[in-house]
Amino acid sequence: MNNKNSFTLIEMIISITLFSIIIIFLYSTLNIMQKSNQIYKDELNKIIKKEDIKLLLFEDLINTHEPIPLETDKEGNTILSFRSNNTYHNVFYTNILYIISKNKNLLRIESSLKYDKKKLSQFKNNKKKYVDIIQKDIKLFKVYQHKNKSLYTIQIMSKDKKDLLITINTI
Fold this sequence. Notes:
By secondary structure, the chain is of the alpha+beta class. 35% of the residues lie in helices and 30% in strands.
């Protein structure tokens, strides 16, 4: 009479092989999940960035108490220059400027001086300003003013063809 108290070699090889196959499937599933999570995270960051831009523009425009003049640069982009109570860097720098830089970045500039195209060198040399890059690789920045003068539509088109369209009522 033989009592069998242990596994045979064949049984061990089969169990290790099955365990290895299960681990390989689990690892590939984990890898796919990590890739999809990264894609989701990247898309979520893009959405958050767009919402931050919308909020910043909204807060800037809603806190202005004067008509906003719309100027355009040589490439047809809008230059927004106005006074706003929405300041992030210095309470006394109430002059806000949105402009496209030579590097195709949308800049938001808080300054103590009001922007004037005719006195551009004076504005550029002013050290009392804060410059924030709002978005990079801008193809078009256009602001449209509606008939009632307090409603603005802002179009930001980037080179990656992700458009941002915002309508703001400044009343």
